[in-house]
Amino acid sequence: MELIRELCSFEGRGPGTDAERRAATMLSGRLGQMGREAEIEPTFVHPQYAVVHLIHAALAIAGSVLATVQPAAGFALVLAAAASIYLDLNTRLYLVRSLLFRRASQNVVSPGSRPEAPVRLILSAHYDAARTGWVFSRRLRQDERSGGRPSPGPFRIFFWGGLAPLLPLLGLRMAGIDAAWLGALQSVPTILLIVAAFFLIDIALSDTVPGAYDNASGVAAVLSAADQLEAEPPANLDLWVVLPGSEESMCEGMRAFARAHRKQFDPDRTYVINVDSVSHGTLNYEVSEGAVVSLPLDGELVELCEALADSGNGLAAEPLRYSLLDDALPPRNAGMHAITIRATDGGSPAPWYHTVEDTPERVDEEALARATEFVVALARLLDRDAGRRTAPARPAEAVAPR
User: Fold this and answer.
1) What pLDDT, in 10s, does the model give residues 304-358?
2) How far apart are CA 7 and CA 156, in angstroms?
3) pLDDT tens-digit profile of 197-212?
C-alpha cells in the first residue's frame, strides 16, 4: 500500500510525461533497496493514442464521403485506415502513428542474476496511468464474462462496425452500383465512425487518472512477488523484473523492450507473466486478448494456471478472454511465452477503471494479496516444470552377460 500511494502521488503520470519519468526513478530506487540491479532503458513513444485513432476515423469518414464521387479513391482511403489500425492495435507495425510527434519514455529493467538457468522468467507490470473519458463511464462498459465468448470491446466495435463494413459497400460503388439503398447502408458505419471520433476527442482532452487499480496494484504485486521469490530463489529460473512505461499508449513500452532484447532472449525459454489491475474483484488469467481479433496467449502458461486453480490450495482463478490489449501481447508477438494475470468483477474491470476515482483508498488489499500469492505459486510451478524437463535421464540398468 505504501508503494501504491507513492506511485499515485505522481499526478498525471501518463505516457511520455515528466511525472512518468519521476515515477521510473522512484521504482528504480525501490528495486535497488530490494538488492536488485536496476536500469532505466529510454525509449520514444507516441503518447496520444486517441489522436492516432481519431486520424484513422477521419480518414475512413473522408473516404466514405469521397466514394460518392470517386469510389476508387474513397475505397483506398478506407483500406489504408483499416490496415493501419489493424497493425497498430496488434502492436505489429505503426503507420499513421509513426507520423505523429514522439516523447521520451522509459522502461525500468532489473535483469536476473542467473543467465545460465534453463528458463528466463520476466515479471512485468506497467506503471504509467491512463486518461479518462466519457466512454469509460459505467453506462458504456463492456461486460467480459470469464471463460465465455468475449463481448466486443470498443475498438472491435470501431473496426468491425465502422471500418470493415465500408470496404464491401465501397467495392459495390467501384463496380458501378449507385443505388439509394447502398447510400443508406453506407451511412450506418459512417455515423458510427463520427460518434467514435467524438469519443476519441473527449479522451484526448481528458485528465490522467491516479491509476491505483490500473496499474499501481500490478507494480506492487510484481515487486512483492519478486521479493518472495528472491527469499527462496527458484533453482531453474533467471528472474527478471520489467516495469514498462507507456502501456496506456497501446503497449509501446513493452513493445520497445521486446524489440530491444529480441536478440538477447531465446523465445523458447523466455516466459513473461504480466500483472495488470489486481486490486479489485476475483482473479483471472487471460487465455486470449486483442483489440481487433482474439489472439491466443501461451498454452503452456494457461495449463499451469488451470492446474493452480484446480489445486484446491485457495488459488481460485478463472479464464478470461480479454477484448483489449495489454503488455502480454508484444512478447507474445515476439514468440515468447506470455500471459496476463488480472482481477475483475465477474469479467468486467473495476467500476472506477480509467476514472478519477481510481485512488489508493479503493484498493482491496485481500485481492492484491491473492494476486501476489498466485504469481509466486505460478513461478514456483514453472520452476518445477523446468526442472523436470532439464533433469538428466536416468542411466539404463546394466544387463548381466549370459
Assistant:
1) 999 999 887 878 999 999 999 999 999 999 999 999 999 998 888 999 999 999 9
2) 32
3) 999 999 999 999 999 9
pTM for the model = 0.92
Instruction: Please state, as a whole number, how many other Cβ atoms lie within 10 Å of the Cβ of residue 171.
Output: 14
DSSP state of 159: I
Query: To which residue does cell 496499474 refer?
Result: 215
Cell 486470449 belongs to 288
What backbone phi and psi angles, to 5 degrees, belong to 303? -65, -40
C-alpha cell at 199: 469519443
Q: Where are the domains of the chain?
A: 2-45+105-132+208-390, 51-98+150-204
Q: Which residue has the cell 449507385?
A: 178
pLDDT confidence of 247, banded at 50, 70, 90? Answer: very high
Q: Report the C-alpha gap between 97 and 128 in whole angstroms.
A: 19
Q: Would you say domain 2-45+105-132+208-390 falls under CATH 3.40.50.2300?
A: no
Q: Which cell numbers hold the place of 274?
A: 504480466
The rounded distance, in Å, linking the Cα atoms of 239 and 244 is 16
Strands 318-322 and 282-289: parallel
d(CA 246, CA 346): 27
Q: How many C-beta neighbours within 10 Å does residue 316 have?
A: 14
Separation between Cα atoms, residue 331 and residue 328, nearest integer Å: 6
Q: What is the DSSP letter of 345?
A: B
